[in-house]
Amino acid sequence: DIVMAQSPLSLPVTPGEPASISCRSSQSLLRSDGYIALDWYLQKPGQPPQLLMYLGSNRASGVPDRFSGSGSGTDFTLKISRVEAEDVGVYYCMQLIQTPLTFGGGTKVEIK
Amino acid sequence: QVQLQQSGPGLVKPSQTLSLTCAISGDSVSSNTAAWNWLRQSPSGGLEWLGRTYYRSEWYNDYAVSLKGRITINPDTSKNQFSLLLNSVTPEDAAVYYCARDRLGMGYWGQGTPVTVSS
């Protein structure tokens, strides 16, 4: 199975400041078609996860443009250009290049 | 608008079978561009993918090997839904179970079903 490692575990943030979450995979997530097989999700308390980014760098419908995804091969980053209070929750990366699909352990973002 | 509505018991006895259903509206379980997934989230918070079913001129299923043949995911085209069967459950199977549609990301999820395994 592909192991997904996220860091940090916890991320206190100041509204208006940038934030960055790292995700590393044990194998390359580069598909033969050039796309990155990585999605990002945000889970708020009491809710199912919600899709933020798909195929590495594509924002899902309705996701603000302060969110961006980047990376290649085995190292990936989710960036928030200016954190807002509504961005708190647990962020997960997920690989989908092979089954079983696997998730990172999560990064909890909270307001300082 | 796609909606996924989960149903099924929240309490299962050890060694028995967990059965959940995910009813789809706004899309078709027979879609050629979507995959229909089951996932769960343990009390500690970790997300685990269990398996999926999808149609690409014929039906396919993928399952987590860790479930060791205990899992079956079935599409039901007559009711436009798909189901999860997990047999021989143990307390380690207690979790919140989710269904989700994967079409360029899992953009639609069911509401979640908390499952307790207890006699």
Protein described:
The complex is a heterodimer of chains A (112) and B (119). Chain A has 112 residues and is mainly beta. Chain A contains no helices and eleven strands. In chain A, strand 7 and strand 8 (75-80) form a beta hairpin. Chain A is globular and about 40 Å long. Chain A starts with a strand and ends with a strand. The radius of gyration of chain B is 14 Å and the shape is globular. Chain B has strands at residues 3-7, 11-12, 18-25, 35-41, 47-55, 59-63, 71-76, 81-86, 95-102, 106-109, 113-117. Chain B has 119 residues and is mainly beta. In chain B, the strands form two sheets. In chain B, strands 2, 4, 5, 6, 9, 10 and 11 form a seven-stranded mixed β-sheet that branches. In chain B, 0% of the residues lie in helices and 55% in strands. Chains A and B meet through strand 5, strand 9 and strand 10 of A and strand 5, strand 9 and strand 10 of B.
Oligomer: heterodimer
Question: H/E order of the elements of chain B?
Answer: EEEEEEEEEEE
What's the tally of helices of chain A? 0
How would you sum up the major sheet of chain B? 7 strands, mixed
Radius of gyration of chain A: 13 Å
Going by helix content, strand content and strand pairing, the class of chain A is mainly beta
Q: What distance lies between the first and last C-alpha atoms of chain B, to the nearest angstrom?
A: 39 Å
Residues in β-strands, percent of chain A: over 45%
User: Which regions of chain B are unreliable across 5 or more consecutive residues at pLDDT < 50?
Assistant: none
Percentage of β-strand residues of chain B: over 45%
Q: Using DSSP, what is the number of strands of chain A?
A: 11
- Chain-averaged pLDDT of chain A: 97
Global morphology of chain B: globular
